[in-house]
Amino acid sequence: MAHQFMTSYVQDSIAVFGYYKKLAERAMEQISDEDFFRTLDPESNSVAVLVKHIAGNMRSRWTDFLTSDGEKPERNRDSEFIAEGASRADYMKAWNDGWQRVFSALEPLNDSDLSRKVTIRGEPHSVMQAINRQIAHYAHHIGQIVFLCKHLCSAEWKTLSIPRGRSQTFTADVATGRKSQR
């Protein structure tokens, strides 16, 4: 994510959510459909399950964000951890729908909304606390997605950040304003 100086918490949060969305998508683009559903062991989640869980969480948290509890009665969280009967395209459709809900809920807000009260599972949160909670939650699971994709790609993995052994070159490029070749 190219750093952009800003003082709006809401705008920065939108940028951070966008960064994590793109990070996960760049990782998932590198794996096959078969690997999308692969688990490392019986207790692990597949990328598909993580996508399904994140999408379910987003649908619940961000639908009617300011006016209803973030844990919707129709949500069946436990079912999000079972990958059955859907294609990768179906999971990605739910993923994109979830992200659309995030951005649609956040874009109309401004920093004066941060102290408004919302509830999640009956507990009061400020809008800022609710945003922080979701950034942390999604970053956690997206880290798992990136780890799984990197593991499954092995030597074929294309780095999502500064390549190993290129930190000095990258730092020099930033200092001189040159674009680093990744």
Task: Describe the model.
- With 182 residues, this protein is mainly α.
- The chain has one domain (9-176): dinb family like domain (Four Helix Bundle (Hemerythrin (Met), subunit A), Up-down Bundle).
- Helices cover 53% and strands 4% of the residues.
- It has 6 helices and 2 strands.
- It has a two-stranded antiparallel ribbon with strand order 1-2.
- Helix 3 (47-62) packs parallel to helix 4 (88-106).
- The longest helix is centred in the C-terminal third of the chain and has 27 residues, at 127-153.
- The two termini are 14 Å apart.
- The mean pLDDT is 92.
What are the salient characteristics of this protein?
182 residues; mainly alpha; Four Helix Bundle (Hemerythrin (Met), subunit A); two-stranded antiparallel sheet; 6 helices
Structural class comes to: mainly alpha
Distinct helical segment count? 6
CATH architecture: Up-down Bundle
Total count of domains: 1
> Which runs of at least 5 residues are low in confidence (pLDDT < 50)?
none
Work out the number of β strands. Answer: 2
Q: The biggest beta sheet, please?
A: 2 strands, antiparallel
Summed up:
The chain is mostly helical and 182 residues long. The chain contains six helices and two strands.
Give the topology, please.
Blueprint: H1 9-28, H2 33-36, H3 47-62, H4 88-106, E1 117-120, E2 123-126, H5 127-153, H6 167-176
Antiparallel strand pairs: 1-2
